[in-house]
């Protein structure tokens, strides 16, 4: 499979702008969604008003301690998942980037994006009265992003070797 890198002339082409939007739009949308999830709207107090009734509806005999533990697990899983999706969308954008450096080093650029944005996310939460910033949450975020990036990197290597073996 031959990958084409875009030239400066493509930037002047309106279809190229649409391609760039299609490539980076989902990534930027997801970044905005993560920023919104860092507001007080998604504080533990607010998410418990949804999670607790749902848990009690499915499992009416759950103790408050068990509900709190499940709620905690759901929130930490959300951290992992939102950054796993961020990493997937970053890879999707970067491997087809018009910037040859980003295209070649998509894995490293993806890791840098995940790490920096997870730290900025927690920094943002430190200004929200109903939220608490935690380096542990950043670690969970990075684990989610790095997991996806590693799986995709291994997949690319396997596909690349497979193509060479069959070519």
Task: Note the main attributes of this structure.
mainly alpha; 167 residues
Compact description:
The protein is mainly α and 167 residues long. The chain is 79% helix and 0% strand. The chain has helices spanning 8-12, 14-37, 44-58, 64-94, 100-104, 106-125, 135-166.
Explain how this protein is built.
With 167 residues, this protein is mainly alpha-helical. It has one domain (11-166). The protein is built from seven helices and no strands.
Report the radius of gyration as a whole number of Å. 20 Å
Any low-confidence stretches, pLDDT <50, length ≥5?
A: 161-167
Tell me the total number of β-strands: 0
Beta fraction: under 5%
Largest sheet: none
Q: How many domains?
A: 1
Q: Label the structural class.
A: mainly alpha
Order of helices and strands: HHHHHHH
Helicity, as a percent range: over 70%
Termini distance?
11 Å
- The backbone outline, from C-alpha atoms, is elongated
pLDDT averaged residue by residue = 87
- Secondary structure tally, helices: 7
Give the SSE map:
Layout: H1 8-12, H2 14-37, H3 44-58, H4 64-94, H5 100-104, H6 106-125, H7 135-166
Helix pairs in contact: 2-4, 3-4, 4-6, 4-7, 6-7
């Amino acid at each position: 499979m031959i990958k084409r890198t875009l030239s400066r002339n493509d930037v002047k082409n309106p279809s190229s702008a649409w391609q760039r939007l299609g490539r980076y739009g989902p990534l930027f949308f997801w970044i905005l969604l993560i920023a919104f999830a860092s507001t007080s709207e998604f504080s533990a107090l607010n998410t418990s008003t949804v999670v607790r009734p749902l848990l009690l509806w499915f499992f009416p005999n759950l103790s408050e301690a068990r509900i709190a533990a499940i709620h905690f697990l759901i929130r930490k899983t959300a951290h992992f998942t939102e950054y796993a999706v961020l990493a997937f969308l970053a890879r999707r954008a970067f491997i087809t980037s018009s910037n040859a450096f980003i295209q070649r080093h998509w894995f490293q650029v993806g890791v840098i994006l995940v790490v920096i944005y997870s730290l900025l996310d927690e920094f943002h939460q430190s200004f929200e009265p109903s939220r608490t910033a935690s380096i542990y949450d950043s670690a969970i975020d990075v684990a989610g992003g790095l997991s996806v990036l590693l799986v995709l990197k291994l997949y690319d290597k396997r596909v690349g070797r497979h193509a060479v073996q069959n070519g």
